[in-house]
Amino acid sequence: MTTGVEKYPDLKDMSFERALKELEAIVGRLERGDVELEESIAIYERGEALRDHCDRLLKQAEAKVEKLTFGEDGQPKATEPLDPTSK
To answer: 86 in a domain, yes or no?
Structure first.
């Protein structure tokens, strides 16, 4: 089974914003129903690849986000990975 980047090599360097914009355009076309069956299948597959690409970019960005930890004196002492589930 091929991945989206293997089937659509242009996704490799595509920004999140550009991929999301294209994905929104595909969703709009499919929702309007003005696309023939074969093209619908093709753009749906491209949409899946775009969605996976966006998801991958978001996960990479999330992994880079860090939060500051503070010492007892109130001064920043270190950083640690952000855990979005903790409060």
So the answer is: no
Provide the residue range defining the domain that includes 66: 4-81
Task: Give Cβ neighbours of residue 25 (< 8 Å, ≥ 6 apart).
Answer: none
Question: From CA 37, how far away is CA 46, in angstroms rounded?
Answer: 14
In a domain, 77, yes or no: yes
Q: What sign for the dihedral angle of Cα 82, 85, 50, 48?
A: positive
pTM for the full model? 0.71
Report phi then psi at 34, rounded to 5. -95, 25
pLDDT tens digit string along 22-50? 999 999 999 999 899 999 999 999 999 99
Length of the chain: 87
Q: Has residue 18 been placed in a domain?
A: yes
Question: What are the tens digits of pLDDT across the range 50-67?
Answer: 999 999 999 888 777 666
